[in-house]
Amino acid sequence: MSATTPHAVPTKLELLELLAAIGTAQWRDFAAAAAHHGLTSTQAKVLAQLNGPLPMRGLATLLVCDASNVTGIVDRLEARELVRREPDPADRRVKNVVATDAGREVIRRVRAEMQATHGALDVLDDTERATLHALLERLRPTLEKDA
C-alpha cells in the first residue's frame, strides 16, 4: 500500500486470528515463567484467578474442566502452601480456595517475568497503550459474560 492509500478495515476473521496468535504467545510466555517457579501453567492460572475466595466448582468453571481435576491441582498447590482451603461461611459443605501470601507473591513474580509479553508491550507508546487498554476493556465484558 502507498502512504496515500487508506488501510483496509480488517475482517472479523483477521482480528480473531490476530487475537488468537497474541493469546497463544502470551500463554506460552506465562507457562514458561510459571515453570521457572516449579508451576504448571494450569497451577499458575489457578493462582492468577484467586483474587479472593473461590469455590472449587467455580475454579472448575474458570478452567473449563471437571471439578475432580481441580482437586488434584489444588492439592499440589496446597502442599506448597500457595493456597489453602476454607469452608464457605454461607455453606460449610462448600470449600473455597484462597491464595496465601506466598501464592500471591509467586503469581506476581510469574507475571513480572513474562519477558516476551513485556517486550511486545514495550513497542507501544503511552497513547497506544491507553488505546489498546480502552479497546480491550470494551471487549472484556462481552467475552466474560458467559464465563
Report on this structure.
The chain is globular. A three-stranded antiparallel β-sheet has the order 1-3-2. The chain is mainly alpha-helical. Helix 1 crosses helix 2 (41-49) and helix 3 (56-63) packs across helix 4 (67-79). The mean pLDDT is 92. The protein has helices at 12-35, 41-49, 56-63, 67-79, 101-112, 115-122, 126-144; strands spanning 54-55, 83-87, 95-99. The protein starts with 11 loop residues before the first helix and ends with a helix. It is built from seven helices and three strands. The longest helix has 24 residues, at 12-35.
Strand/helix succession: HHEHHEEHHH
Order of strands side by side in the largest beta sheet?
1-3-2
Number of helices, counting only DSSP H or I runs of 4 residues or more:
7
Low-confidence stretches: none
